[in-house]
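New to this. Comment on this protein:
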Amino acid sequence: MNVYWGYGNSGKLHMDLYGMYNGMTMLYSKYKNFYKIRNKINDRGVTPKGNLWIYRDLQKIMYYRDNDKFFSCETKMSDHLKRFHFTPGDSYINPLSKSYVDFKDSIKKTNSRGALGNDMFMFTDEDVKKYTSDDYKGRDIYSRAFMQHCIYLKKYEPIGFEMLNNNADEIFDDVDIVMTMTIDNFGDPVPFGSQYGTGVCESHYLLQQLGKTFLIPPNVLDKLQKSNNIIPYKSDIFGCLVSHIDSFSHLTHHQYDETPVEIYEKNKKLIWDYLDHQLNQPVKIAEFLSKNNVPYIYFDLDKDNYNEIFGGDYELDREYTSHAHSWEGYEDRYNQVARIAKEYISLRLLPQPYTPTKL
C-alpha cells in the first residue's frame, strides 16, 4: 500500500489521475469518513486534442458510522467513460483562468452544515427513505440518496478511534494508494488538536479522537508502518516557488484583498512567511511520521519515476496537470512572479536542485 502525503501544490490531482489511469484502488477521506474507489480499466486512449481517457468499471464504497454502528454504502458502475481534462484556475499569472468568482459562487451554494450541493439536494425525506432501502443497494440512486441523508439530515460523524481500529482490515487491505492532505493552510487558525498532528493529517481521517488526544488507531498505524509512505516535493525550487506565488490567493482562500505582487510591494515579509510555510510542509509531515515511527521517503515530482515508486504500467506526462502552459501570453505577470521567486531563493540561500530537510 502506498500512502501519498499531499499538501497545497504537491501533485495530488496528478497522483489521483495516475492511480485511475493504472486501474488502482484509491482511498480518500469524504465527509470525515472513508471513501474507496476500485477501478477496472477496460480500455484507455487519447483524444484528438491530446486528453487521456479511460473506459472503466468502478465500484465506490463509503465506510461510515451511524448510531454507533459500522456501515458501508456501495455503488457499482459499468461502461463508464472518463476524460482526463485539466484546466488551471484561480491563479495570478493568467487572469483569465477560472476566477475566484466561480469559487465564491460555489461557497454561496454551501448551506450552514458545510455541504456543497444544490444539485445533491434533490430528494424529499420520503425519497431518501425509499432509495436507501435494501431494494436499491448497489445502484447509483442509493448512493446519491445516502449522501443527501449523510450531509443534510445528519452531522458529519467521525468514524471514531475504536471503530476505525476494528475495521481497518476491511477499509485498507486491498488499497493501492491512500490519499491524504494537510489542512494546515497559511493564515488559517491553528486546527483543533494540531498538537497531535490533525494539522498534518486530514481532520478525523487517519487520526481519531481518544479522550482529549488524537491518535492513529494501532491497527491503522501497523498498516502505515508496513506501507510505502511518500512525501512529495519539487527539486526545481524556482518552478516550485513560482507555482506557490501564482497560487497565493487560492491557497490562502482569498483572505487578502491584494494580489501577491501587490502584497510583495507593500509587505515582503508576508510573502516570505507564506513561502516559508509552504516549503516547510514536507518537513512537518516527515516530523509527524517520524514521531509515530512510520517510515517515509521523499518523492521528487520533477525527476523521480512514478512507475518505480507507485507501481503501474502507464506514465502520465509530468506536465499534464501543470499550470505552466496557461502562463503563455502573460509574460509580464510571469516575470513579476519570477522576480519575487528569485529574490526569495537568494534571501534564503536555497540550493538548486532543492531537497527538503531530512530528519
User: Anything to note?
Assistant: The beta strands are 2-6, 25-30, 33-46, 52-66, 69-84, 177-181, 208-210, 213-215, 228-233, 297-300. DSSP finds 13 helices and ten strands in the chain. The chain has one domain: 2-113+155-348. The CA atoms of residues 14 and 321 lie 6 Å apart.
